[in-house]
């Protein structure tokens, strides 16, 4: 999460041609997508994230959002993982939260502003907003001293407040001073192991323990908003931080007292195996002596013979089909019958007994699970969470996430804090910001004549990105006009950069004035701006 890690927002690659105005120029096709929360990973083909990592397209949700942020409307926020519970809570006026964080390794820059805006927008929609300084991660993963961290942490928080974060109605903290986060990290660490962290992050025998500990702390950050009670929580991140989100979702499930699944017999089955078994149950009329009570062995025989015409069976892996057949055969004459299952993951004895007493209707009780025949999944999930919360459990909901595109550096290629000309710091002198934009690479043609004839390449232009991500603000018509005039050959790069440079200078001037105005609010807040740690 790099706190939810915008430190690597800096990394981006060149863009591909596109017919519609893609705010980052789209994506050009790399063969691989590597997501590294601490490295210099970049995404050359955002489409591969949908295919390889299960990230969903955000555009599909736009029609259901009452007041989508312009970053959503323009496709800068391009993907999500399980955002629908947050959206539903937003629409119904139910509690939800947003959390993101910042690793203070340098000055806050215009890339970080994306996440500031996403936190603030969700707060404005009624969410409980959390912003954190990932100082433990900066110390462990990047080797910054506490003095260096303190120097930058204040600047991040000032920019967050200057952009509109409501400190009275939100929570801001440092990892190193929030005891509840550290306590939760300790508990989460019981459910994680070195092999898992090695597989996810590439940790090996040379990785120091504090770096690994910082990962578990980030998991605690992500789940921290739910310590007061489970609620949908969204984590705005760049796609390179998705490994953190996936691990946090796994740990949220492992911390639950009970898992709620579908089953068809007393044995356990994987999701793929359940797909096969469910298809066999649906086809029971074609093979069972008594379709009202098909037997497991009958389903196994039907599957063994080919299970003709059931596409659900035909699309799963062959080994999943074989495993399902084996389990059905071992179950013999046991009836094949759908039921909702409560799995005892880590419940106390008292909580398990309370669950058994609470489940009404027909049920079967086993050593490690309870099968209910008169409950649907949603009813069962509510019962499981209620029992857990009544017996000192967390009841976590899996956290959601939204993903924004990386910004291209002003010099082309990557936007990097180590290349001053490639990025604009929110602390840059406004005149310096003006000069950086004026010197930026563009997507223009070689000559003005070719520009007028062929049009500019806005989808490959870092300057157009500035309009779409920042300078056009909430004015979609202005952003589209810039794009259309560019690709239509009416707008030449010199005039375009002059306008962008002027807007950037004004933005920096106004932002820095606002930072001065909110300085007293930050000083008065209950936040330790100087770490008591030294090392």
TrEMBL record:
It comes from the Archaea. Its main location: cytoplasm. A motif ('KMSKS' region) lies at residues 414-418. Residues 497-528 form a coiled coil. Its EC number is 6.1.1.2. GO terms for molecular function: ATP binding; tryptophan-tRNA ligase activity. Residues 8-22 have a biased composition (Acidic residues). A motif ('HIGH' region) lies at residues 104-112. Residues 1-36 are annotated as: Disordered. The keyword DNA-binding does not apply. It catalyses: tRNA(Trp) + L-tryptophan + ATP = L-tryptophyl-tRNA(Trp) + AMP + diphosphate + H(+). One of its GO terms (cellular component) is cytoplasm. It is found in: Cytoplasm. Keywords: Aminoacyl-tRNA synthetase, ATP-binding, Coiled coil, Cytoplasm, Ligase, Nucleotide-binding, Protein biosynthesis. It holds the Pfam family tRNA-synt_1b. It is an enzyme of class 6 (ligase). GO terms for biological process: tryptophanyl-tRNA aminoacylation. HAMAP family: Trp_tRNA_synth_A (MF_00140_A). Catalyzes the attachment of tryptophan to tRNA(Trp). Belongs to the class-I aminoacyl-tRNA synthetase family. This is Tryptophan--tRNA ligase. It comes from Natronosalvus rutilus.
């Amino acid at each position: 999460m790099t706190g939810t890690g915008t430190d690597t927002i800096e990394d981006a690659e060149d863009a591909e041609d596109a017919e519609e105005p893609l705010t980052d120029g789209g994506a050009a096709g790399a063969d691989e997508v590597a997501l590294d929360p601490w490295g210099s990973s970049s995404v050359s083909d955002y489409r591969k994230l949908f295919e390889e990592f299960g990230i969903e397209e955000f555009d599909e949700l736009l029609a259901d959002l009452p007041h989508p942020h312009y970053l959503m409307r323009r496709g800068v926020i391009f993907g999500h993982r399980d955002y629908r519970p947050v959206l539903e809570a937003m629409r119904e006026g139910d509690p939800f939260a947003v959390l993101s964080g910042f690793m203070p390794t340098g000055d806050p820059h215009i890339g970080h502003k994306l996440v500031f805006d996403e936190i603030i927008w969700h707060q404005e929609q009624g969410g409980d907003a959390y912003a954190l300084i990932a100082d433990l991660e900066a110390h462990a993963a990047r080797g910054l001293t506490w003095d260096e961290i303190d120097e930058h942490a204040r600047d991040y928080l000032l920019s967050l407040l200057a952009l509109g974060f409501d400190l009275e109605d939100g929570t801001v903290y440092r990892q190193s001073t929030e005891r509840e986060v550290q306590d939760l990290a300790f508990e989460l660490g019981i459910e994680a192991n070195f092999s898992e962290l090695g597989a996810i992050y590439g940790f090996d025998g040379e990785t120091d323990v504090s770096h690994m500990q910082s990962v578990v702390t980030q998991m605690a950050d992500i789940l921290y908003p739910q310590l007061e009670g489970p609620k949908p929580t969204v984590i705005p991140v760049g796609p390179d931080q998705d490994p953190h989100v996936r691990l946090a979702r796994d740990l949220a499930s492992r911390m639950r007292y009970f898992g709620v699944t579908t089953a068809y017999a007393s044995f356990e089955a994987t999701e793929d195996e359940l797909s096969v078994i469910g298809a066999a149950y649906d086809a029971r009329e074609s093979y069972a002596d008594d379709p009202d009570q098909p037997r497991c062995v009958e389903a196994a025989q039907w599957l063994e013979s080919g299970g003709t015409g059931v596409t659900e069976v035909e699309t799963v892996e062959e080994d999943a089909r074989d495993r399902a057949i084996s389990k059905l055969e071992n179950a013999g004459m046991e009836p094949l019958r759908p039921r909702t299952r409560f799995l005892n993951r880590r419940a106390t004895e008292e909580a398990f007994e309370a669950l058994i007493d609470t489940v009404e209707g027909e049920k079967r009780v086993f050593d490690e699970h309870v099968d209910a025949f008169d409950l649907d999944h949603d009813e069962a999930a509510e019962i499981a969470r209620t029992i857990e919360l009544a017996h000192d459990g967390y009841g976590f909901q899996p956290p959601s996430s939204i993903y924004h595109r990386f910004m291209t550096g002003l010099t082309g290629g990557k936007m990097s804090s180590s290349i001053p000309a490639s990025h604009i710091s929110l602390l840059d002198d406004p005149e310096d910001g003006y000069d950086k934009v004026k010197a930026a690479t563009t997507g223009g043609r070689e000559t003005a004549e070719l520009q007028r004839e062929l049009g500019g390449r806005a989808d490959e232009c870092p300057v157009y990105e500035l309009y779409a991500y920042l300078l056009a603000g909430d004015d979609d018509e202005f952003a589209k006009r810039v794009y259309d005039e560019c690709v239509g050959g009416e707008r030449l790069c010199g005039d375009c950069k002059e306008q962008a440079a002027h807007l950037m200078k004004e933005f920096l001037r106004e932002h820095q004035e606002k930072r001065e105005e909110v300085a007293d609010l930050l000083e008065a807040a209950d936040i330790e701006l100087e770490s008591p740690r030294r090392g």
